[in-house]
Structures are given as structure tokens and as C-alpha cells.
């Protein structure tokens, strides 16, 4: 069993073994995010689904109202005049067969890959290198599209893709420690609504199992999912 560092052990003593109200949990996470850099705030949500069944898989996108606080590198595989459109829209990497060949050789210096439908037969051949990294473009994720400029704009602004892993757990980075707790909660509420809206048709029994939030270098805090779901903004 891995031994906790003195710092982590000290931070863990501040957290009680109970489920916290959302803003209280986020306040603790922010207070504990005292590393020498702006720590990323993450959500780890266990859902009552078994993704080995196709009707219990969850994969979608969400546009967080306050963004993620992270800049991402976007690659675009397209053809013809769309290559120049991708460049003009702010893509970090762009190309046709040349980019396909580069990726196939292991050049993966990007966080998100967008492709136009006409290039998907060529992109599909990259499954061996893209699949394990979760980078294969997908229509459900908004990464297979003819509207390249808008897709780049949305993802650069904080739209993100998320999915449930093989254990039915969703891992999402939804902000930075420098965000206010209110901004973090707004993002978290939007994430919760997206997960509920996109509930797989085959999900049975209790859908939300556990909901934890944490920072890059800090311990996790369990959050009251019912309080997030029931929250209604004033006015």
C-alpha cells in the first residue's frame, strides 16, 4: 500500500468521513489546493452502469459555463479548403494525409482530434494509436463534423468530451483552484445535468453511486449528489 506523504496526510485530517454539501466540499478542496501551481479541480463519479453493454455506455460533450481554465491543443484532419479554415479558426495542427501519416508514426502532440466526415475512412486506420488514448473522433462527441470553425471555437472555449470508463466511472476536469467556489459549482451543476440528460437507456437501478471532487495534489471529498441535483438558482 502506498504511503501518504506528510502533506497529503495533513490535508486528509481536515476531511471528515461524511458526505459534504457542494459549496462546503468545494471550499475544502480549494483550501487544500496549496501546491505551488494552480491545481486542476476534478470530479470522479461512479455511475450504476456497465459499459460492456452498448445500451449502458455514456459518451458525450458538455460546455462548461466558466470553461476549464486549461488551454488545449487541437489537431484537425480534413481536406481541400477546410485545411485553411482549420488554420484560421485556431487549430494547432492541421492537414490531410500528411497529418494522418504523422499521427500513425506516433506524433501525438495534441489533446483533441477533430475530423471531417470525408476523412474518417483514413482516420479509422489510426484506431491502434488513437483508441488507447481516447482520441478517436466521434460524432457523439462533436469531433466528427463539417463545421470545423465552430467546433474549434467551442472546444477552445471550454467545451469538453467525457465518457464513463470500463468501471462506469466518469473522470472530468472542471476548473482550477483559482476559480471561485461559485464558478466551480456552476460548472459542476452543468456537468450533473449533462450526465442526467444523457443517461444510457439500459441503466438499471441507482444511477448515481458516488460523487467525489479533488484537486491535482489534494485528497478527495465526497459530495452530496442530491444537493447538486436539487439546486435551483434564486430568481
From TrEMBL:
<keyword id="KW-0687">Ribonucleoprotein</keyword>
<dbReference type="GO" id="GO:0006417">
    <property type="term" value="P:regulation of translation"/>
</dbReference>
<dbReference type="InterPro" id="IPR002143">
    <property type="entry name" value="Ribosomal_uL1"/>
</dbReference>
<comment type="subunit">
    <text>Part of the 50S ribosomal subunit.</text>
</comment>
<comment type="function">
    <text>Protein L1 is also a translational repressor protein, it controls the translation of the L11 operon by binding to its mRNA.</text>
</comment>
<dbReference type="GO" id="GO:0015934">
    <property type="term" value="C:large ribosomal subunit"/>
</dbReference>
<protein>
    <recommendedName>
        <fullName>Large ribosomal subunit protein uL1</fullName>
    </recommendedName>
</protein>
<comment type="similarity">
    <text>Belongs to the universal ribosomal protein uL1 family.</text>
</comment>
<dbReference type="InterPro" id="IPR023673">
    <property type="entry name" value="Ribosomal_uL1_CS"/>
</dbReference>
<dbReference type="GO" id="GO:0003735">
    <property type="term" value="F:structural constituent of ribosome"/>
</dbReference>
<keyword id="KW-0694">RNA-binding</keyword>
<dbReference type="InterPro" id="IPR028364">
    <property type="entry name" value="Ribosomal_uL1/biogenesis"/>
</dbReference>
<dbReference type="InterPro" id="IPR016095">
    <property type="entry name" value="Ribosomal_uL1_3-a/b-sand"/>
</dbReference>
<dbReference type="InterPro" id="IPR023674">
    <property type="entry name" value="Ribosomal_uL1-like"/>
</dbReference>
<dbReference type="Pfam" id="PF00687">
    <property type="entry name" value="Ribosomal_L1"/>
</dbReference>
<dbReference type="GO" id="GO:0006412">
    <property type="term" value="P:translation"/>
</dbReference>
<keyword id="KW-0810">Translation regulation</keyword>
<keyword id="KW-0820">tRNA-binding</keyword>
<dbReference type="GO" id="GO:0019843">
    <property type="term" value="F:rRNA binding"/>
</dbReference>
<keyword id="KW-0699">rRNA-binding</keyword>
<keyword id="KW-0678">Repressor</keyword>
<keyword id="KW-0689">Ribosomal protein</keyword>
<comment type="function">
    <text>Binds directly to 23S rRNA. The L1 stalk is quite mobile in the ribosome, and is involved in E site tRNA release.</text>
</comment>
<dbReference type="InterPro" id="IPR005878">
    <property type="entry name" value="Ribosom_uL1_bac-type"/>
</dbReference>
<dbReference type="GO" id="GO:0000049">
    <property type="term" value="F:tRNA binding"/>
</dbReference>
Amino acid at each position: 500500500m502506498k504511503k501518504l506523504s506528510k502533506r497529503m496526510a495533513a490535508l486528509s485530517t481536515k476531511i471528515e468521513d461524511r458526505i459534504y454539501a457542494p459549496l462546503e466540499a468545494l471550499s475544502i478542496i480549494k483550501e487544500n489546493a496549496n501546491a505551488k501551481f494552480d491545481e486542476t479541480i476534478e470530479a470522479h463519479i461512479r455511475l450504476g452502469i456497465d459499459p460492456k453493454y452498448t445500451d449502458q455506455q455514456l459518451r458525450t460533450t458538455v460546455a462548461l459555463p466558466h470553461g476549464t481554465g486549461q488551454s488545449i491543443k487541437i489537431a484537425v484532419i480534413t481536406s481541400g479548403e477546410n485545411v485553411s479554415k482549420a488554420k484560421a479558426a485556431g487549430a494547432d495542427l492541421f492537414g490531410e494525409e500528411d497529418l494522418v501519416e504523422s499521427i500513425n508514426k506516433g506524433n501525438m502532440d495534441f489533446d483533441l482530434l477533430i475530423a471531417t466526415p470525408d476523412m474518417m475512412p483514413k482516420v479509422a486506420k489510426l484506431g491502434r494509436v488513437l483508441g488507447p488514448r481516447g482520441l478517436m473522433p466521434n460524432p457523439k462527441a462533436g469531433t466528427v463534423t463539417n463545421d470545423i470553425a465552430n467546433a474549434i471555437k467551442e472546444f477552445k472555449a471550454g467545451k469538453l468530451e467525457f465518457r464513463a470508463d470500463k468501471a462506469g466511472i466518469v473522470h472530468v476536469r472542471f476548473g482550477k483552484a483559482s476559480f471561485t467556489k461559485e464558478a466551480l459549482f456552476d460548472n459542476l451543476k452543468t456537468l450533473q445535468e449533462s450526465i442526467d440528460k444523457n443517461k444510457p437507456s439500459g441503466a438499471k437501478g441507482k444511477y448515481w453511486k458516488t460523487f467525489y471532487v479533488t484537486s491535482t495534489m489534494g485528497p478527495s471529498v465526497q459530495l452530496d449528489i442530491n444537493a447538486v441535483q436539487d439546486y435551483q438558482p434564486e430568481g
